[in-house]
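Re: the 252-residue chain
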Amino acid sequence: MASAKATAIVLRTADWSESSRVATLWTREFGKVRALAKGGRRLKSAFENALDLLTVCSIVFLRKSPGTLDLLTEAQVVQRFPRLRDDLAALYAAYYVAELLGDWTEDYDPHPALFDEALQTLRDLGSKPAAEAPVTETGPRVMRFEMALLRELGYSPALDVCAVCGAAVEPERLAFGAAAGGVLCPRCQAGQREKRPLSRGAWQWLRALAAPGDGWKEPPNAAARAEVRQVLGHYVTYLMGRRPRLLPYLGS
């Protein structure tokens, strides 16, 4: 069995036996890993608190054959997120990030850029800011993560051209089609069932969320933000085939 080292985010854990647990980990080097932590339920285990949910840790594990659990041999805490203990909105948002990574990715399918985005999202949501520094808004930060996730998994929505006919779109009388995979021009909307109207402000912010840079950090008015939250939630639900459990607890 080959030994491997990785940096991991703890997505979930489940009891395996009276003394052991199974951890689902999202790693930068290997993607999603599911490993058995023998003795992980003991109060004084070798893992201490490194397997607490949403903890960032450095791990060593033994890779087993496909379809079986790997064996976790070491886990040490790298970072925790204290704001999550007393900010319920941030906690729900972080749980949502973990749910998407755990349920919508395949084992051993690494996406280093997605790991970096997830880690930065958790840092923004869960780190207490310095004195006089603004607190990160949970809604925009999670929507930025969703757009990164969609890009990495190959589901980036078409935003500059019609997802059906490919024509350049104007910011008037637009709709977003989940089945089509992006915005719809007025001419192509009639034949699409999974669609929602899209205002100019919501369309512009969707483009900012998808673009490089920090333009997404200047969100629009509350109505446009709520509209984008609805559009992204609908799109993610359509692609996953079910509504994420934490989706109803997110704000815009």
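Residues 82-249 form a domain with the de novo design (two linked rop proteins) fold (CATH 1.20.1440.120).
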